[in-house]
Amino acid sequence: MPKVATLRKGPPLGFAPPGARRIAVGVEVLDGEDGSGALFLWGMASWCWSGDDVAGRRLAAVQLVDTGAATAREVAAGFGVHEPTLWRWRDSYRRDGVAGLLPKPMGPKGPSKLTEEKVAEIMALRSEHLSLREIAKRVGVSHDSVLRALGPVTEQRSTPGSELVPLAPPAERTAEREAARRGVLAEAPPVITEGASLPLAGALVVLPALFATGLVELASSVYGTGRQVAGRARSSFYGLRSLVLCVVFACVVGEPRAEGLSRIDPVAIGRLLGLDRAPEVGRLRSRLAELAREKRSGELVMALARRHVESHKEAVGLLYVDGHVRAYNGKEDISKAHVARMRIAMPGEVDTWVSDRFGDGLLVWQAPPGASLAGELKKVASRVRELVGPDARPTICFDRGGWSPKLFAELETAGFDILTYKKAPKKKEPRRAFSPQVFTDDLGHHHHYLLADRKVVLSYDAGRRRFSCRQITRLDERTGHQTEIITTRKDPDPALVAYAMFSRWRQENFFKYQRAHYGLDALDSYETEPDDPARLVANPARREADKLVKEARQSIEEAEAAEGRSAVEGHESHPEVIEAFSEARSELAAREARAKEIPSKVVLREVRPEAVRLDVERKRIMDAIRMATYNAESALARLIAPHYARAEDEARSLLREIFSASADLEIDGDRLHVRIVPLSAPRRSRALAGLCQDLTATETIYPGTGLTLVYSVKAT
């Protein structure tokens, strides 16, 4: 036979039709229901065969190897045969041509046991999810016969003694990447990798709860999937869905920062995304920068908040508000803020967070430098009113940093109840005013308080106006300390109000958990933007002048004290001392006069012309994704509680173990089975089994595939 020319591999020319099965890079096979098939090279049909044309199918396999389009191993796996079988086909073709590829007549062992009835029985048993060995035992045929009956798809992914390939590598996506580079692919579609013991596949457990937050759907709605760049549709291998889910999966497996992708196996995350690998750090940063340039992070946060309010109406009647300082340790000139947890003032940005009554995130935005909590509460009222509608009367709970009776009156007029601690209480309540109260929370825990309940009047505007409200005081019998709570709520049970106020720790726990596991303080962008040059700031010159005044006044006070002690002891003042006092008082008056001439505020450009602020857009996009992921984790923690006795203390640690666990992925019809390996203890595995049943009942669809997720614990 003449020598076959080797096929020169070149760039892709197109795409194979939907449903084609990949053999190698640029090589796909489209199988027909009657056993027929067609071979595509770089999207172009190059060979086909009918259902009964065994020689034609074998010839296609042989020529793929002879032309160099694919390796022998790839062709053998793709056509469902062993490599020695393919070698025999090639030898027969070289020796006898196409005639050598015709099937040989049956030998003396008799006809095949795989009759039509046997094949039908095997297919029926397979639909019951039995193992291949169990099917072979019931039908009375060999394991290999079952493989042949189930067809090439099962043969490709099976090995003797198992149904799925352990640590199966994802399919290469070279053609899609080339198409994205040429600008003809908006986003690579997900292709699920079936396999056994796939690392981190347990993270797929987060999807039902995540989709309930609307994150993927709303991000697509806000930023769009077909954005225009330079007048044409945006083309990319990693689309918006892939980027969002990549951040989510990285968060739940313990690497919430973009740099964390360099510490995770990109193939493991790629399997979760339905791709061959996760995006690299630089690619993720550049794509997030593109989104940040659209200046829509606020829209995304509000869209997520609306979905949260619609889904959790029972949780938004009480809202916790607080500021969180993200400390900055870089070299840029960033305005200082007080970091309460560190008890120092240092450069940083202040974020205003609003959480629901369970502590889950609702809203977040970056506060202007120097903003007070009282000023931020006005923004909270405006945005919350937009979310809950004109008729709702939610309660806003905050700490003493928001103390302002004038603001309390404005919030009450706007249809809000307030709940806060009293600032600088003047006198204690008498012991007889307290009575024991008990409140039972959602988990059945009883909270015992000694409470005094009465009305108080707060004055403001220099005493010209008054604000009437309610004061509930808690007494700690052990220490005698009294804690005063100010509220406009009219609940007959004061214990309910006290419990709501003391539950502010939920938002503090939100901050603590986010810092530890979700990179709340991460510097997601090194970009900066100029600070407002016309913003008024404290005048350093006035600060220095006031310092000199204070030092002079303190020196005079110390000298007067010493002189007083001398007079008490019977010593007379010398004329020199009296003159020194006169000169010191004159110097103090001069310093006070000079200080008054210096303005206390100046514009920022005069004292800090290089002042900048950290970029807000990219940080806010990441905050929105992390907030939705945290809320999804919270939902899973509540869902697992009935199945786990220690859920109140260990639910989140159990979930982190699940997220990091390996799992088998298998497609059965239109269902994607996620079988998670047993956990570290039987009680944890039982809790996981209960959670899997609840999640399967949601019938969540993996985005972009039409496959319904089915969760279970892998049998051992």
Could you list some keywords that capture this structure?
alpha+beta, five-stranded mixed beta sheet, 19% strand, 25 strands, disordered N terminus, 41% helix
Give the termini separation: 54 Å
As an assembly, this protein is single chain
Number of strands: 25
The stretches of 5 or more residues where confidence is low (pLDDT under 50) are 1-11, 152-162, 226-233
Strand content: 15-25%
Tell me roughly what share of residues is in helical segments.
Answer: 40-55%
What would the principal axes of the Cα set say about the shape? elongated
Classify the secondary structure makeup into a structural class: alpha+beta
Tally of individual helices: 24
Largest beta sheet, briefly?
10 strands, mixed
Which radius of gyration do the C-alpha atoms yield? 36 Å
Q: What number is the mean pLDDT?
A: 87
Short description:
The chain is an alpha+beta fold and 716 residues long. Among the domains are: 21-101, no CATH class; 116-157; 404-491, no CATH class; 540-598. It is built from 24 helices and 25 strands.
What does this protein look like?
The chain has 716 residues and is α+β, with helices and mostly antiparallel strands. Among the domains are: 21-101, no CATH class; 116-157; 404-491, no CATH class; 540-598. 41% of the residues lie in helices and 19% in strands. The strands form 6 sheets. Strands 8, 9, 10, 11, 12, 13, 14, 15, 16 and 17 form a 10-stranded mixed beta sheet that branches. Strand 24 and strand 25 form a beta hairpin. Helix 5 (132-139) packs across helix 6. It is elongated. Residues 1-11, 152-162 and 226-233 have low confidence and may be disordered.
